Every structure is written in C-alpha cells, then in structure tokens.
C-alpha cells in the first residue's frame, strides 16, 4: 500500500469514527424522543424509525451508479450534509409531519454514506490490506457508537426537550465534520475506477445479476442480517424480556456485552481469520450464531434459575458480537473483490440495499412472531437461518477463486532437501 493510500485511509477512518460517535448520541433515544418527549405517540415513533429504512430502500438503487460515474467523494459529501440537515431538523421537530420528513432526510443521507465510504476504503487499500481496513472501520464505528451512547445518556433529560435538541445538534456537527474530512481526502487515482469504461445503466444490473458469486453473496448477506442484526430490537429483546424474564437493565448489560466483545476481540479475531478462507470463516459464524440462539432458547425453557437465564442471554449477545467481529474483515472486502473496477460502487450499494431489506423484514417477522407468542417457532426459525448461513457460505466458496476466498496467502514454509542449497519453498 502506497503512502498516499495510507494517508487517505486514515482520514476516511477518522471521519467514519467521528460520524459514528455523533450517531451514538441519538440512536438509543430516538424512539423515546418522538413518542414521549414530543408526545407524538408510539405509532408515530415506529413510523419515524421505519422512515430510515424506507429512505434507504428508495435511494440505494441509484447510489451505486452515481458512485461509479461521479466517484465516491461527492456522494459521501452529499450524504453527510443531508444527514446533518436531517439530524438538526429532527432535534427541532415538534409535529409528526416534521419528524417524518426529518427522519427521511437523515435516513437517506446515512444510507448513501455507507457504500460511498466502503468504495473509498476499497480505493485506498489493496486486496492484501482490505480485510484489516474494513475490520478497523467496524471497530471504530462500534467504539464511536458506544462512547456516543454513553455520553448521550449523561446529557439527556426526558423532562427537557432542549437536551434532545443538543444530542441531535451534536450528531449534525459530527456529520459536518465527516463532510470536511471527505473534502480533504485525496484518493489515489490509480486505485479507483475512473479509468475504467463505465457500463450503461441496464448493463450494470445485468452484469451484477449475471455474477453468480455476487448473487449468492447477496443471498448470504440477507440471511446474515435477518438472523442477527434484524432481531436485536424485536424478537430477541422480546424473548429475553417476556420468556427469559430478564430485567430491562440486564438487557442493557447484554447489549453492552455485545459491543465489548467487538471492541476487545476485533483485532485478535482478525489475526485468526485474515489468512483463512473467507467462505469457511462465514460458515463458522453461522455455527457460532446457532449456539447463541440455542443459548437464548435455553434461557427461557431450561430450568436453572434467573441467574442462569440472565447469563445465557448475556452470552447470546456476546456470541453475536464474536460473529460480527469475524464478519467485518470478511464480507465487505469480499464484495469489493468480486466487483469489476467499473462497478465497485454498484456492488457496494446493492449489498447495502440487501442489508436494508433484511433489516426491514427481520424486525417485522420477529415482532409478528413475538406478538403472537410463537416463541418456539421463532427460535426454530433463527436456528435454521443460522445453519443456513453455514450452508450458503460453503456453497459460495465453490464459486470463489482462490484469490477471492483467501486474498492473504499463508506464509510459505521452507523444506530442506538434504543440503542448504536445495531448500524448496512450499506454500502452506
């Protein structure tokens, strides 16, 4: 990796961390703010949160083409400014209409930032350093979200709407900092796709759909996000509270355990997985999450007392964190390595779209099953989904080239042939 690439990557990571830090101030408190502080009710708050996903689903189909044609920098800049405007407006909104418009603008802005930053990281890294770059992005994002959430909890006061305006103001300021960082980045021209012939709009989608490995990766991504992230705020939390009977405070401890595992274990996990086949690492995540869901089920139906149930739920969230740490240096770099040079933005945006679809459907399905009290069916569904992750990952591995599946080769071993002059290198 060149000096210019390293300098650009450091700026991108700094901007990503600061925007996540700002986002952390508001994410845990948005529902409370809309429903109670602004006294607009739970229904309006739920619709407002759904507005984030709807905005993402509307803008992402067009984002990839713009990134590939105009470059990721202007897209990230527009997304950061739109997010700042949406966050500031949300902090000042007092009516349902204003809240919904604000969340739509904020959600759309955040949605386009994600594939733009991912493309910038791809342009500023090599296949050999890409896994570490995306692992660092994930680590910094979670660290920023965690610290922002903790500080936000110290500042917020349910009886003072102005304290929430302060939180959203801080979030808006951090998005503007991201915009300033983006403007200062000098992406290595040789690393980008600017010299590649841009495909026509229809040809872009045909090329992507014709890439069987990418289609399988999108299927895998949907199941990944549906079975884990899509359940955090719906089915899993409902199961923990209603079946395992843990307290809301201990649910907060479980969420903290998830973040702690990611922050503490990320680079240890990276050293363990970066030289291994990506498809097998993802398959291992499916097994880890299967154990996590079985632990969750045991917390509600296996005798052992409240302490054991609480420990099982905390373990479930911690195991999810371990799986997330294994995925961060694996899935996003694989999307980049599958993409032709002229379609990196398209591939990143499409995968982000699949993620948003899973994050929209996951809570809906989990919430419906929880509302119906069908918790046994719910646990069966998520266990089968987790096992499906392993199966689809191994299936995908058959389509990947050796360079795509394991871009960082194992170190060679020197095998002696009887004399020092006849040593032979053998790849491990």
UniProtKB/TrEMBL annotation:
Residues 1-400 form the Major facilitator superfamily (MFS) profile domain. It is a multi-pass membrane protein. Keywords: Cell membrane, Membrane, Transmembrane, Transmembrane helix, Transport. This is Major facilitator superfamily (MFS) profile domain-containing protein. Coiled coil: none annotated. It is found in: Cell membrane. Pfam families: MFS_1. It comes from the Bacteria. The keyword Cell membrane applies. Its main location: membrane. GO terms for cellular component: plasma membrane. GO terms for molecular function: transmembrane transporter activity. The chain crosses the membrane at residues 12-34, 40-60, 72-92, 98-122, 134-156, 162-183, 213-232, 244-269, 281-303, 309-335, 347-369, 375-396.
């Amino acid at each position: 990796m060149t000096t210019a690439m390293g300098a650009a990557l450091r700026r991108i990571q700094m901007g990503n961390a600061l925007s996540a830090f700002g986002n952390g101030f508001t994410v845990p408190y948005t529902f409370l703010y809309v429903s109670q502080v602004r006294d607009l009710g739970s229904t309006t708050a739920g619709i407002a949160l759904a507005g984030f996903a709807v905005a993402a689903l509307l803008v992402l189909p067009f984002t990839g083409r713009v990134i590939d044609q105009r470059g990721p920098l202007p897209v990230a800049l527009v997304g950061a400014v739109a997010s700042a405007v949406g966050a500031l407006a949300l902090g000042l909104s007092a009516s349902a209409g204003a809240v919904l418009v604000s969340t739509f603008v904020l959600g759309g802005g955040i949605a386009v930032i994600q594939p733009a930053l991912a493309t910038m990281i791809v342009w500023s890294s090599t296949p050999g350093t890409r896994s570490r770059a995306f692992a660092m992005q994930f680590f910094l994002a979670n660290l920023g979200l965690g610290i922002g959430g903790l500080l936000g909890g110290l500042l917020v006061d349910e009886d003072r709407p102005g304290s929430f305006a302060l939180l959203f103001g801080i979030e808006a300021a951090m998005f503007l900092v991201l915009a300033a960082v983006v403007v200062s980045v000098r992406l290595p021209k040789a690393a980008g796709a600017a010299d590649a012939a841009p495909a026509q709009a229809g040809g872009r989608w045909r090329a992507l759909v014709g890439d069987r490995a990418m289609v399988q990766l999108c299927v895998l991504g949907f199941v990944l996000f549906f079975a884990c992230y899509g359940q955090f705020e719906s089915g899993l939390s409902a199961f923990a509270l209603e079946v395992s009977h843990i307290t809301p405070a201990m649910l907060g401890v479980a969420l903290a355990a998830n973040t702690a595992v990611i922050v503490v274990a990320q680079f240890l996990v990276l050293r363990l997985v970066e030289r291994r086949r990506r498809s097998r690492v993802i398959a291992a995540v499916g097994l880890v999450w299967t154990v996590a869901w079985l632990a969750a089920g045991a917390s509600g139906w296996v005798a052992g007392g409240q302490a054991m149930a609480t420990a099982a739920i905390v373990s479930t969230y911690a195991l999810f964190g371990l799986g997330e740490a294994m995925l961060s240096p694996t899935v996003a770099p694989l999307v980049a390595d599958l993409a032709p040079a002229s379609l990196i933005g398209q591939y990143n945006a499409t995968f982000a779209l699949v993620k948003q679809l899973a994050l929209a459907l996951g809570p809906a399905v989990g919430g419906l099953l929880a509302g119906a009290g069908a918790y046994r069916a719910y646990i069966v569904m998520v266990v089968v989904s987790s096992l499906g992750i392993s199966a689809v990952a191994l299936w995908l591995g058959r389509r990947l080239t050796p360079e795509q599946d394991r871009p960082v080769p194992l170190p060679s071993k020197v095998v002696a042939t009887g004399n020092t002059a006849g040593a032979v290198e053998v790849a491990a």
